[in-house]
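[job 0417] fold request received: ATP-dependent dethiobiotin synthetase BioD
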Amino acid sequence: MGEILVVSGTGTEVGKTVVTAAVAACALRAGRTVAVLKPAQTGVAEGEAGDVAEVGRLVGGAVTGRELGRYPEPLAPATAAARAGLPPVSAARAAAAARELAAGHDLVLVEGAGGLLVRLDEQASTLADVAGLLDAPVLLAVAAGLGTLNTTALTAEALASRGLACRGLVVGSWPSEPGLAERCNLDDLPVVAGAPLLGVVPGGAGGFQASRFTASAPAWLAPELGGTWGRRPGG
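[job 0417] inference complete; emitting structure tokens
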């Protein structure tokens, strides 16, 4: 049975997908087989590329991708499913799919939608419930700038209150010209989360071609995630 790692954000637009792709790229370079599971994809119409496809593009298509539910409106999965008249994806179904993928892959990355406690269905199940059913650690993609300390601390507290392990933090989009807040946050983020900072992905990395992305990804992530990153930018 392969390793399962849940990737959550502290909110929307913090770089979950590019962090997922970077972890996948490092695993692939190490010779591991990788699957990416997206329980609920929102804000994407039929025929459009979703987050699973974007991970595949960034790593050159070398991953197995699976999407369980797709809803066109950019809303929380439970709301988007109800408005579309489509069945939601339960935590139990997501966990079962992850286990199935883990039976044939060395690493399964389960990418959430939005933050940790966004509702998946009418029973108010969340990505935290998926992680709990799988007994899997959670990797947090976090923002770099002002406000990130609060959302990171709240998410870490939610994980701890449920007995879930936080594998660490990865900054999903590091600016080319960081300000004082960003530089200070690199020290403060692991303190407020009680978990290690395991990487910093540069802003714009999601626009890279696969060859550049896969060659660069190890420099963004710490050895715990298969990379070589060991010090903060400019520090």
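[job 0417] notes: Residues 3-127+149-174+183-225 form a domain with the Rossmann fold fold (CATH 3.40.50.300). Residues 145 and 181 are 6 Å apart (CA to CA).
[job 0417] exit 0
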